[in-house]
Amino acid sequence: MLSYFIVWLFALSAVVVANTNDTQCPYINATKTNSVSKTRIMQYNVEWLFLKTYNDCPGSGCTWKTLSDATTHLNYLANVIDDYNPDIINLCEVEGCYELGQLNTLLGGAYQPYLLFGTDSATGQNVGMLTKLAPSADLKRTSETRQYPIPGSKCSSSSTGSTGVSKHYYTMYNINGKTIYMVGAHLLAFPTETSRCASREAQAAILQDLIHSLLSSDPAAELILLGDFNDFDAEVADANDDKPITAVLDILKGVKGDWAGSYSLVSAASLVQQSQRYTSWWDPNDDCVATPNEMSMIDHVLMTPGLVEHVSQVLFAHPYTEFCGTYNSDHYPVVVDFVW
């Protein structure tokens, strides 16, 4: 009887450990050089990848009303990722490392999860990473804040205040002896809402400071900035020619801002046909029918010019049809292949 109780207690403790509050996993095990001939990266907003209730998600606070719904969504995400088999994935709208671990299990344990908690207490969303390659630095964040509107802002809103970048991380990889910084970010929502214009520009200015600092510290390094920036690109138009009301992409690419001209980032979208440039569905008329005019490109992969020559393919993947009630994400993945 005692032995049965011990077995039962051990099983119960295993369940409890597996369902404790979410954790972060920002630390690498060891630095190493990744000797590879090619690398595939993916940017994917996975839409509320939450398995533990935070602010009623799963529940009435997000898309997935029950844990069963959220688990089905998790399986859909795994199927999409498995089809494209990326080496490094930047994932937006993740609750924590538990969710990344569950996703990795469905992917056969091929990846190592990394996530550093952000400061978005309203949603609890974070930006995380699954990777087959070994980062050479722990995930870090910048705590910088900025007043808005920033100098030179053309935002029409009169809103003022201070902001940081609540959802982001940065790390680095050594690939064949080359240092490549990676910055993953998720900026404030609503691309066309004037009240968000100035604050999102301030977030972009903070990331510009970070990018300038990283590249200045190692002029031979390359850098990839990727994520859901919730904004349009004035230079590389999306499939519907959406026009930005902010200078966010210009700031991030080094075209405008305090460090304009000190570095340059190129959009992976410039390497595909305009008709393919859409990554997100918004249903403004609430008819639950996804039409081409409701698609936009707000997820981006930007890179230093030295990496562009190594790009063998850019794929704006659209492997599923959007509709109300789908278990897929309301975003599509962006895939970039590099050959070294």
UniProtKB/TrEMBL annotation:
InterPro entries: Endo/exonu/phosph_ase_sf, Endo/exonuclease/phosphatase. One of its GO terms (molecular function) is catalytic activity. Pfam families: Exo_endo_phos. The lineage of its organism: unclassified sequences, metagenomes, organismal metagenomes. This is Endonuclease/exonuclease/phosphatase domain-containing protein. Residues 49-316 form the Endonuclease/exonuclease/phosphatase domain.
